[in-house]
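Lab meeting tomorrow. Look over both lines:
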Amino acid sequence: MSELLPSVMTNILTLRRLSTFCLVLLCSFNIQAQFSFKYHRQVVKPAGGYIVQDIERIYAPSLTPLEMPHPDGELDREWRKTAPRAQHFGKMANDVVLNPNTPKPEVLDSLGGNAYSGSVPNDDDFAIGANQQILRVRNSTIGAYDYSKDSLLYEETLFRFYRPRTFLPGSKYDPRALYDPIADRFIVLYLSGNTWQTSSIVVGFSKSNDLADGFNIYVLDGNPLNDSTWSDYPHISVSDNDLFITMNTFYNGSSNNSGYVQSTIRQVDKQAGYDSLPMVEHYYADLKVGNRNLFNFTGMDRGDDHYPPNAPHYLLSTRNLDSINDSIFVVSIVGEALANPQLNLDTYTTETPYGLPPEARQANDHKFDCNDSRVQGGFIQDGKIQFVGNTITSQGNSGIYHGIIDRYGPKNNVYFKIINMDPIDIGYPQITYTGKSAAEIEGIISFNHTGDSLNAGFSCLFFDNDSSYSYRQQIVEGGDYVDIISSNGNRKYERWGDYTGNQPAYGETGTVWASGYEATSNGQPLTAIAKLRSPNWQDSPTNVGLEENTKLQASLSPNPVIDWFKVDLEVEEQQVLEFSLWAVDGRQMPLFQIEELAMPGVNSFRFRTDGLQSGSYILVAKDLEGKTILQEKVLKP
């Protein structure tokens, strides 16, 4: 469990910690009279470990409850929080028109996730390492599978994954999994208990890149503020040095958000977790805009592996319980947990509104619960944040939104489109970057599908660099509609899930992994995992979408090159620039990557080319904030 260190009074601009050891109250801070939060720091000690046993390798026995807690407290089926299907935005201009000329993603492979455990919803998530081992989680089991060898390493219940001498009471649910490409390790998290007396957060850090070596276990307090709340609906993401955990808190007996209190962010030193050492944790709570709590934060992944040092980590929130809204809240945290991190918030306005989704249709008048319009996932690439989530469409159906926020652009100009596929309903999307250069914006959007004439299954589409969207690519149709829950005598209202999973296929150009939902022929929910690839994966990197930097001018010569390639840069102020040269053959590492100090006026950068093979290359220059200021093709005859 955690050992509480002095809570600290924090200046929002510096987050400077005081060097006192007396206990002080959590203090609230205001930013521009709009944004406020509370903060404290503590150290979390290791709680134990998980070691794989032969019984899990051979038999994988399990006992699971039928239905896990709802992401906004216990669901009262007599009070539907979803929007009426007849509701309309009255604004249809920004609905996506799917383009038949935009190529679809390729489905390279598909495989099943963990078998149906008798528990709903699926809450599909997974992580796959560079060694092709897959960590697969769902309510309420965890399994490890070797994709290259087509063999199961083990399957385990969450209850047995961590079992201290004094067991943690309450159901075990909402598992999340993540592969950390920087450390080549895995992280898994799940919740235990759904009352303030029992609420705990179990976090496992893999001991190596081999899932068979087990995990180091930490247990975080689900009620660290001692305010009679329990923690629900986790999301995890990583930066170079830290793990970020977001949670929502509720009072006991909450039903349909009646007992919602606040959303919180934890920032912990992930290397300590890999090393089984005490972890420094920063806890951000009571985050408000306009004295109104923000509900649900979702951390953004990286678009590619090339990320500037000390770059901010971004987390997004919406007014996801409003019938209609157009606000997106972007939290940025700069600095690692072992230093003095800074937290800031910016508010953006979308070009068209999002809203509470209606129930999704199934056959035989069955319905799926779509929860709300929170951000489900996203990534940042070259200063542009792409994100997706559930929404009602302009025609009153269950659809998804896709947004892009340019961190260097105006706040009142957010690209935001709604994807409507009536007569089918879609939901629980994820988006994964598939581009090959900093200028590209392409990605694969995966999502669940259902309809009164289409079995519950899993699909995807391609978002191209010209901002066009492909037609739906079906991954699995599913065998039937889902018919599991019989709560309160209602057999027609089902849990579609709380989230799905996705990640890049590291080391493979334009390729991603995604997990979703499918129904069996006898109406049970299954997890589907698919390997998908961009239709552009063999193309050369493009300059589509590359913005000019008005403060920098460049002249290039010669091109094609002979012995040297030179670029003259004119800058207005002293700054450090990073130059990197990339082959266009899909290699994931640059031929060189260096930093140089540019002085006001004209600066000349050059490099020898006699060591290059004949072909095409891309020279990229970025500032230390990661903004691309130059990208030029280099031709070697």
Summary: The chain has three helices and 44 strands. The first strand starts at residue 2 and ends at 4. The helical segments are 54-58, 158-161, 270-275.
